[in-house]
What does this fold into?
Amino acid sequence: MKKYLINDDDVITDDDVITVGQNLYRIDPENSAECKEFPFLRCEKASKNYNHRLIQDGADGEILSGGNDKNATPIMQGDIIASNLDDDLAFILISDMLIPLYEAKRALDAYSTATNRTVISLPTPSPTPELEEEFTKRDKKMTAEIATMKDLIEHAENEGVEIIDGVTYSASHTWVEIAKMALDLAEQQEWFERYEDKYCND
It folds into this structure.
């Protein structure tokens, strides 16, 4: 569970947007009744299909910084999204909805004070065929990139030169490429960790 503070300035077009399925949400402290499900949210249907992106990210939703879907932060079940201007204006992602944190807290408090609690362990959800295909594709790609990186490390350790398009590069250039690959592999590993958290927690 993570907490994200998002921007909700007066200018709606510059606001951060939360996508959950095909719904776009903006925190709007001034508009307490537009979103029928919950106050202080402005919601609308997305014209673009975000489901494929969510599968690729291994996420349940995204925060689009400034409303720009090229600058997205994946979010997962139980993550909290709060206003940067008013930390009390917070929502929690549960299922395919953003629920005011105070509503979720009320339910949790009622559960914690109940005298006859029954705990039922349900099986871990199964990934969709599209997600399994994405897993296989990413696994093959990451395995190949790790093998390439190992070759580059061996090459750089021997202080060999690298020739690309007729231009000779020193071993330091190879180390820079290795560092870039390592950062990319770290991002790929985050996808696998989100996948395992969601589908492999028995």
